Amino acid sequence: MTRVHALLADMRRSASEESVPILRPECEKILVDVVREKRPVRLLEVGTAIGYSTLLIAASMPESATLVTLEIDAERAAIAKQHIADAGFSERVTVLVGDALTILNQLTGDFDFIFLDGPKGQYLAYLQLLLNKLAPVAVVVADNVLFRGMVNAEENPPRRYRTLVKRLREYLAFVSTDERFATTLLSDGDGVAISYYREHRGESDEET
Ligand SMILES: C[S@@+](CC[C@H](N)C(=O)[O-])C[C@H]1O[C@@H](n2cnc3c(N)ncnc32)[C@H](O)[C@@H]1O
After folding, report:
1. What is the pLDDT of residues 20-34, one digit of tens each?
2. Is there an atom of ligand 1 within 6 Å of 52 CB?
3. Which of 50, 83, 152, 196 is most buried, most CB within 10 Å of its CB?
């Protein structure tokens, strides 16, 4: 087992003990495969928590790549920074602490990989802010898009989740109909949407 994998195993244990939400095990391979296949060089993650998915992504990205990750909770961000340092990625991974909406307004592009795993109701707002910060070819992975099966269900969600479910449906509708995106929706875990972006998508372009 490599140092990063040993660290990830420890992190999964402590996240479970501390009830910190992190990527479901069944989604790890999806995330890693996209990063390995697309070989992005400027990556962005929204929702760092303690840095579990951050390290998975960092360990899979090319050596020349850099990753910026955003977390609103200062305590979690501090733990993530320590894990990133322990894994030897401090030079290439930057944790920014604050509200993602504020930070995204200030960030400059061009990102060619985005992992959305922060507040689910904000995915579309984040993506809309990021549209002019994407590289000409990019991929956007969004986790929990089926939110406990409620997004695809015919019956109404419980009242407290109505806005969230409506917003996730709006996100999925956008990445499924905007012609710059080709989206694959996977039911693994809590639902993962992989949206392949091309600034100029011609008729001859492949699905991705
Ligand atoms: C599901 S967790 C992220 C898990 C992480 N990506 C992983 O798989 O290891 C979502 C994180 O988003 C953070 N978050 C919530 N609202 C936020 C906001 N407005 N801006 C930035 N981060 C936010 C939460 O504090 C939480 O740590």
Report:
1. 999 999 999 999 999
2. yes
3. 50
